[in-house]
Input
Amino acid sequence: MQAAIPTRLKAGLAAIGLALLLNAAVTYINVGEIRQADSWVAHTLEVRQALDELLNAIVTAEASERGFALTGKQSYVDQYDYAAAEARSKLKALRELIGDNPGEQQRLQRAQAEIERKFEFMDRVIAAQRGGGVAASQRLIARGEGAAIMEAVRGAIEELDREENRLLALRNADATRSAAAAVAGLAVFTLGILVLAVAVFYFIRREIAVREQTIAQQRIAEQRLHLQANAIESSVNGILIADAARPDHPLVYVNAAFAKATGYSAAEVLGRNCRFLQGTDTDQPGLEEIRIALREGKETEVVLRNYRKDGNLFWNQLKISPVRNEAGEVTQFVGIQNDITGLKAYEAELERNANYDSLTGLPNRNLFADRVQRAVIGAARSGKLVGILWMNLERFRRVNESFGRAAGDRVLKAFGERLAKSVWENDTVARMGGDKFAVVLREVGSPNDTARVLAKLQEALAAPFSIAGQEIFLSANIGIALYPTDAESAESVVANAEVAMLRTREEGGHFRYYTAKMNSAAAERLELEAALRRALERDELRLFYQPRVDLRTGHIGGVEALIRWQHPSLGMVSPVNFIPIAEETGLIIPIGQWVFETACAQSRRWRESGHANLRMAVNLSPRQFRQSDLVASVSKALERTGVAAEALELEVTESVAMDNPARSAEILRSLKVLGISLAIDDFGTGHSSLGYLNRFPLDFLKVDQSFVRGIPGDADSAVIVRTVIALARNLRLETIAEGVETEAQLRFLQKEGCEEAQGYLFSRPQPAADLATVLGAGFAKLVVVVA
Output
């Protein structure tokens, strides 16, 4: 055993020596392989760094292209050219670095093709900006082609990077295998201490390799983060990040472009919800879309009206995207702002140019057609009419020839302004081109309504136009058509109005309706209205008086003043035909004032001639009764004419008094304070409230002639008349019956206790001069005989 030990020791030493030699040789070989692997690792890292720098150059070129598209500054083009040259330089370097790898060369060729496509697109954006401005470049960008190409470029570069990363892993594996082989040899042929040493060496070497790889990857990641941070901070678009996990999603980051666009610094906005940019303008559909996207964690893109710190409006195109963690939970929302205020202003200008006449500012033919279509749709729902007036200025060509086109333009503008002032606010006046204009009348109740507008238009045209210190008078040919009376569509009613205008120009006159029937009726009304406007000036109005008989004595207790119109060609015109026109046009106010003062003057003359107890009854029209200065006007008229208030009786129809009972009671009380007698006319035809009737300070109730006409034979009429008389008696009022034409009617009224009556049985309405005999004689004989 002892002899064997040295031998075994020697053998062991020899084995150890041999093992050491073998280990040295194996280690030398493996070290060479490790060095070669390290060289390939360094080569791979250099390739990946070149790929990152290539992507950085392309991103910089894109940012410069977007900057030039939005601002048009040449400095962005210079940056773009430099970045493009840098990208092509990196491509050349990459071709040299991967020259021994055919697969990578093919991938690089595909990446280069996508990169060239990207640069070709960016060149087109720059060219579009130079040729068409911001709008043109933005339209090209908005198509998404550039973004799609950029995604392809990123994909190609990432494919190269993945391959290099794979090669890096393989080469690290080769180095690891070489080191493992050395360790394995030492483990087999060395003693435990050498095994331990080799193991330590192996582990240290592996740790170094892992650390080198980690450091390399960290360097690449840091470079990428730095690139992304620079891209975000230098972006021309505002970028903001909101915390999705905290309540109300407060802002945690905004870039410099956001601060520049909004006027708010980062310190002023961080921690706040970005709704403050809307201020009080919260009625925007885009805000609801944002709320839905935040609630559901989805992407969205909206356009909002935002307000800068100084209060100025800017249009914000905002794209919001969620950021998720490894668990799929949304942790942040990233928003990208794009100020499109200029684009909105440009669009508004385009829309205005498309829809409004540049000279007059009125809607043009395009907008006019839209307004007609809308009016027709509305009329179909409401059952009303749409009126189209088509007109052209007569002799306008002479204005251009005599004074020049600039003067003619001023006339067209002035004419358009007059037209616009002559229609209602919801109607439309448009210039159709040249000296042609058109009007859309919405919600027309009847063809007569168009006649009133025509009167206003003609009145507006009646005033002269001033050109170069000279006054010229122009007229217009007007054609009128109504929907659906004259046409079944918007296009045809406009065409018919134009046809009617052409007929006007050919046949003479100032206007034509598309149908002869309406033309005749509206023309007569318009002529009657025009004549009525001159009736006061020409002293054509007359007052007739109808006696009111006291059925208890036969004496004449009063007269009612009734207006008549002595037309020079039509003869005596019934008030039924002209009073509605006067009421609609407002002419009833001056006419009513004339009636009141004329009746008061006549009352004074009769009283001075011996009829001291004769009352003068005057009707108040609805417009007169609603005048704010009615009481003052009546008081002044009494003073001017010198008539005592007790000589006057004012009559108001039941429907007018009950239109606003509270206001009516106030007016009637004010009139009563003057000492005037008051009567409700046409009683029984309206819907009186007995409560309000009792509050009115009345003296008389007048039974409408429609009820008197049926007595005594018609039972219903008899009941109504009896009821009115009884009601008046209970209210301590006297009753006056209108339209008494037969002795049977008179007998019935006397039997029921009616105090006064008027009608053809006693006297027709007559001029004051013809009434003298009747006033002196009275009707005592008739009343006594009947009684």
